[in-house]
Records
---
Amino acid sequence: MAHILVTGSTDGLGRGAAEALLEQGHHVVVHARSDSRGEVLRPLVDRGARLVVADLGDRDAVTALADELNALDAPLDAVIHNAGLIRGAAMMPVNVVAPYLLTALVTAPTRHVYLSSGMHKSGTASVLGDVDWSGSRETGSYSDSKLFVTAFSAAVARLRPDLRSNAVDPGWVATKMGGAGAPDDFELGHRTQRLLALGELGDVSGAYWFHEEQQQQPHASVGDEGFQGEVLAALERETGVALPRG
Ligand SMILES: NC(=O)c1ccc[n+]([C@@H]2O[C@H](COP(=O)([O-])OP(=O)(O)OC[C@H]3O[C@@H](n4cnc5c(N)ncnc54)[C@H](OP(=O)(O)O)[C@@H]3O)[C@@H](O)[C@H]2O)c1
């Protein structure tokens, strides 16, 4: 049985992934932004999940979460970096900085799955230099944030051959973010993340997946090593934390 953290598991796709993994008998670490939001995870905790709490828009809280995860009795096998926001000042911190810090600081997991979006294809690589990563004001778009985290996923795959790093477009799914009328299938929306976290889609790293387990071609900048390096440099400079190289 695998030991998997799903960030942002109070709702939507993260909750769907966490519930399905628990159902299959895996050891699941569920995550909420606050103690009060953690209350909605009580049914999962009652079924054996472990709850961790951290506001991913708060860098100190993310660092403390990494310390807590590193101190777990059993090491994590995988992280599904699922938590996300579609707008607001915390969007870049939650969508990009938190996955970066958890990847750099949590030592055990060998499989990382990053939630991308089909919308990353309309992201603009050149806005990278104008992003305020601190969360004090909204900069860039949701599409930009998903372009950056998808490029980061590809950079991890390239620089850390010891890890398996993949990005997933879950489709347009009916959640708080996706809206009630979203047309794609909810179960398929979290299935690929689970299979990647379990290592059940082959020994693949650096791929961009659509929700029905198809590898697709991402935005051209994702595979651009120069752009990947710029994303890494921006995040390293901003956080003071370097991504360990394999
Ligand atoms: N739904 C879609 O159609 C779609 C399409 C493409 C990509 N995605 C991506 O899929 C992922 C999941 O999306 P979803 O549709 O399931 O969204 P959702 O229903 O809005 O759920 C987002 C999750 O992230 C958590 N979260 C947000 N901000 C947080 C913070 N500051 N600290 C800790 N947790 C935080 C939320 O916590 P609360 O419950 O407390 O708010 C919730 O658990 C996201 O990365 C999203 O960008 C979704």
Note: The mean pLDDT is 97.
---
Amino acid sequence: MLKRIVAMPPKSYLCRKCIDMKNNIIIVLVCLLLSSIATAQEFNDFFSDKTLRVDYIFSGNQDKQYISLDELSQLPSWAGRRHNLSDLPLKGNGEIEMKDKKTGTIIYRTSFSTLFQEWLTTDEAKSISKGFENTYLLPYPLLAVDIKVSLKDSRGNVTTSLTHTVDPTDILIHKRGTDDIAPHRYIIKNGTPEDCIDVVILGEGYTKNELDTFYIDAQKACENILSYEPFKSFKNKFNFIAVASESKDSGVSTPGKGIWKNTIFNSHFNTFYSDRYLTTRQVKAIHNVIADIPYEHIIILANTKKYGGGGIYNSFTLTTAHHESFLPVVVHEFGHSFAGLADEYFYEQDVFSDTYPFDVEPWEQNITTLVNFEEKWKDMLPDNIPIPTAPNSKEPYKIGVYEGGGYSAKGIYRPAFNCRMRTNNATTFCPVCQRAIKRMIKFYTDK
Ligand SMILES: [Zn+2]
């Protein structure tokens, strides 16, 4: 059972006292003010203004998975939320729960998806075990905590979990980010890390001589993301920081053509033998470069003209910066990594299989199997919309229930005929994706 963080005793004491003093509006107002301060102080009751970075190795194969703790680090500041601490932004394919060790109270939760779980759906995972790096940022606890990390299958069942204790005074917690400041500049700064969502943009495959190009590319990515609704309406809730991470070689590795480069994050195409899938396994290397910068979300721009990219919820977006579709793709991938949106496209021959079972409602907000449509966009659907909505309609409804999405032509439905999460020629996110992104922005920033 989820225990929410309860209000501290002084808050309830003050409120009760105030209510007893009828007709004294001023005192009630003072009481309300103190009450809101007490709520804001909940973070400080459990955490300091630092980050606990937790590195795990997720390993195994389709039959059996394991989680191992790799390393703990302390980063100099905390850029994440200081409210909604025990709530999940989305269900996700994995979850982290932090409990105060003494009382067992849940004091922080977050969710994520992983490249490892995508790999588990490939044929390769039937015959071999592999290990993948995964790194998460948690607020730094004042006292000892138990951290439970769990992975879930496509049906939402926990497949493996690990619970470990962290003593915040442990001398082996690696103190990072106190020197060696990475060259970086704010592209847009609307407020403090506490008030805003902090997005870092890193360069992959840019040499020292190409860093000016990187800054231009980062500026384009930022401006383009913020030109889409609902990011546009909430742009004052974001900070974007360009980090000049330098590579020895120019470009990125393309194993399908026998090309390997020496780049800072060792990213490559042909992930899972898929031509256009560009990812990196060097997740710790990404986080090491930005240890001194307040950050919550990561975008990596790859210095290549080849088409490709990938975005993993609460992990990172990686996309190519010099293909003609760079701008729509970076927005699409950020839809995955920031808001946990699903792909609304489908192919007959996708490398993934069984990603979304037809008899389970997926947790992603922009696709449905109609198993539990009420928790999706049924409330947004105009009257008399046919389900499924005819896909060849000359004037497609803005919101419908179109069959095809989530890598399947059958059994999975998407909200709109077209959307930024479906094709590169869509000019907007569909209304359902817009609502999902808006909810995420508000989850992180509404206090
Ligand atoms: Zn959509």
Note: The first helix runs from residue 9 to 20.
